[in-house]
Amino acid sequence: MEALIVYESAWGNTRFVADEISDGLSEHGVVEVIPAHEAPRLVDLTVDLLIVGAPTHAFGLSREGTREEAHNRGGELISSGVREWLDASGHADLAVATFDTHIRHPDLPGHAGKSIAKKLKKLGCRMIADPATFYVDGHEGPLLPGELDRARAWGESLAKRGDG
After folding, report:
1. In Å, how far are 43, 46, 133 from 100, measured between CA atoms?
2. Model confidence at 106, in pLDDT bands (50, 70, 90)?
3. Domains (range + CATH), the chain
């Protein structure tokens, strides 16, 4: 299996999750992990599985303003994220899965993974799993204990779905 993981990460937490998902998938094939601003368009991909992840900002996918806010609090300045990548990607018939990082708070709505899934479906992609959420402590993180293990296990489960 050939897989590509496209992510956006201001604080590094979403990148850490992407790397662990990659480790979970890697026993089943070749996996590349790449930031959204460097990723090829969907229409140009020929992978067996595409996984896309982003942090949840303001109840969904980040925008220029929310990325600037994160940068002002000490995060990496990201000029273009998953939202912009999807908007410029074109249609594709790909097997996909999505994930997000999110503050662990019972009353905080919205998930970037669900927003990504909705956009990918409109672009012709097929979801092979429900969006996954990995929790961080506060806006900056770190990831909560056990989340990286969950990410690796989720990657393994995605590989098994792709193998079957």
Report:
1. 23, 23, 5
2. low
3. 2-163 (3.40.50.360)
88, with CB counted inside 10 A (0-12, 13-18, 19+), is exposed
Position 164 confidence tier, pLDDT thresholds 50, 70, 90: very low
Helix 13-25 × helix 147-163 angle, to 10°: 40
Each residue's pLDDT tens digit, 21-66: 999 999 889 999 999 999 999 999 999 999 999 999 867 787 787 7
Tell me: the pLDDT tens digits for 145-157? Answer: 999 999 999 999 9
The whole-angstrom separation of Cα 160 and Cα 162 is 5
Closest CA to 27 of 149, 127, 162: 162
User: What are the DSSP calls for the chain, one per residue?
Assistant: -EEEEEE--SSSHHHHHHHHHHHHHGGGSEEEEEEGGGPPPGGG---SEEEEEEE-BTTBS--HHHHHHHHHTTPPP-SS-HHHHHHTS-----EEEEEEEEE--TT----HHHHHHHHHHHTT-EESS--EEEEESTTT--BPTTHHHHHHHHHHHHHHHHH-
